[in-house]
Amino acid sequence: MRRAVVLGGGGVAGIAWATGVAAGMARRGVDITHAEAIVGTSAGSVVGAQMAAGIGLEILLAGQLVPATQTRELNRRYSQAEADARNRELMQKVFGDIGAARRRIGAYALRSETVSLRQRRDIIAARLPATHWPQRDLRVVAVDTATGEHVVFHRHSGVELVDAVAASCAVPGSWPAVPLNGRTYMDGGIRSLTNADLAWPANTVLVIAPLGYGDGNPVSGHLRAEVASLQSRGVRVEVIVPDDHSREAMTDNVLDPSRCVPSAHAGVAQGERIAEHVALTWLDP
């Protein structure tokens, strides 16, 4: 059986929550770190790289329980609700042309003033237990700012892991776009908050989506369609989205490092609660 874990975007709060969910499930006997493939988008690329490196989930969880003032993370003002509203307005302006919408977002990413690329790269490097690609099927999704097309970075792509993850996490307007091999890339969440369809081929796919289904985001809220596409191929799919307590812990500003500790705790509680249900899909041969 080939199993894949899909880890979606969701800022630093999403990193903490997803880590907590994974750790909570593992405490109840459902360890997802041995998946044959890991697809990471934005925040999910961080969690995916950490898992693929073989670091224990309890160690990763401990890293999310460090007070924000003791980390290198920077706070950025961000509202997912506002981002969704901007994307709805943008889609109206481009008459529903999603490719044009992504290219406009790419242009915005290039002209936005953020922190320096070096500073951002150092922050990403501090999140990763190793800067080399693991010998695993780790897929890191980013989007070309010029074309709006996505790219899947992996250990044979010829780019460093930290740069691939930095590109995948480059939220337009919040963090700098990342130049690699003559192209410039932005957040993989611009294509999809989860990119669950990129888990194919697999028999079983577990999606951990910190931002939920993204129904209010016409540019990148495609999880329901991705799940349907996988299921039409005979893939068993399980989706985990934040419960009410987790959403309250994460808040709408998922880029706020002060939300990491409460988000991690909420994730653990949710993971422990849902583990038995997830096991029916994940552990059943």
UniProtKB/TrEMBL annotation:
<dbReference type="InterPro" id="IPR002641">
    <property type="entry name" value="PNPLA_dom"/>
</dbReference>
<keyword id="KW-0378">Hydrolase</keyword>
<feature type="active site" description="Proton acceptor">
    <location>
        <position position="187"/>
    </location>
</feature>
<protein>
    <submittedName>
        <fullName>NTE family protein</fullName>
    </submittedName>
</protein>
<feature type="short sequence motif" description="GXSXG">
    <location>
        <begin position="40"/>
        <end position="44"/>
    </location>
</feature>
<dbReference type="InterPro" id="IPR016035">
    <property type="entry name" value="Acyl_Trfase/lysoPLipase"/>
</dbReference>
<dbReference type="GO" id="GO:0016787">
    <property type="term" value="F:hydrolase activity"/>
</dbReference>
<feature type="short sequence motif" description="GXGXXG">
    <location>
        <begin position="9"/>
        <end position="14"/>
    </location>
</feature>
<dbReference type="InterPro" id="IPR050301">
    <property type="entry name" value="NTE"/>
</dbReference>
<dbReference type="Pfam" id="PF01734">
    <property type="entry name" value="Patatin"/>
</dbReference>
<feature type="short sequence motif" description="DGA/G">
    <location>
        <begin position="187"/>
        <end position="189"/>
    </location>
</feature>
<keyword id="KW-0442">Lipid degradation</keyword>
<feature type="active site" description="Nucleophile">
    <location>
        <position position="42"/>
    </location>
</feature>
<dbReference type="GO" id="GO:0016042">
    <property type="term" value="P:lipid catabolic process"/>
</dbReference>
<keyword id="KW-0443">Lipid metabolism</keyword>
<feature type="domain" description="PNPLA">
    <location>
        <begin position="5"/>
        <end position="201"/>
    </location>
</feature>
